[in-house]
Amino acid sequence: MLTSGSVSIENDTERTANPTGDGAGINPGTRVCACFTSAPRLFADSKLCRTMPLFLDDVRIRNFTSCFKDKKFLAFFFKHLKKNNTDRYMDDFPFLSICGVERNFVRCDDLPVVFTKVIQKQNAETGAEEDWFSYAHADNLLMVPFEPQRLFMNVNTGRVYHPALEKAGGIGLVRSNLAIEFSASFSFRNGEQNPPTHFTWKDKRYELDTTWFKDKLTGS
């Protein structure tokens, strides 16, 4: 029932009664979230997989019409996202989002945080325009400071990463169409078989920090 390229939420009462289903044995009333933040190669060109929407798990047809689009709901869900340290389902669901007494268990193809847009915001004290990185399609409701010097490209997969909140793992994935835009601004002083060394943003060339992600990204 779970498919890559989306985030889905399910009330697991029916799933528990069906031992052949994915997630069998989870207590009734437990809400299970399967978060797949990057598309498999088979669906790499589909809009659905690039935008990472949120669905109820029992929705059979997954498109823009059937996904969650309320930004306040998305902001609430992802603000409460953290690593799963409950000793329950930790192997299958490494993250969870808590809503009152309800636990939404989350698993991902890569990472649960997906950055979707760079937003300009005026500093109230200095009046200067600052860049912020929005994630989870919540626009200015979910943002971290944009740090161009801390972008990381995995040359084996082409995926680009940026720091996220520590409670959500400290690292997030840049959505594919934005990563493609960024790729033109990377410089590879050590050769293109190695990660980029510099990134140009708004006419300023940054030397990339190549160590910050080492303890956050498996296989880096």
From TrEMBL:
<feature type="region of interest" description="Disordered">
    <location>
        <begin position="1"/>
        <end position="23"/>
    </location>
</feature>
<feature type="compositionally biased region" description="Polar residues">
    <location>
        <begin position="1"/>
        <end position="10"/>
    </location>
</feature>
<dbReference type="Pfam" id="PF14956">
    <property type="entry name" value="DUF4505"/>
</dbReference>
<protein>
    <submittedName>
        <fullName>Uncharacterized protein</fullName>
    </submittedName>
</protein>
<comment type="similarity">
    <text>Belongs to the UPF0598 family.</text>
</comment>
<dbReference type="InterPro" id="IPR028108">
    <property type="entry name" value="DUF4505"/>
</dbReference>
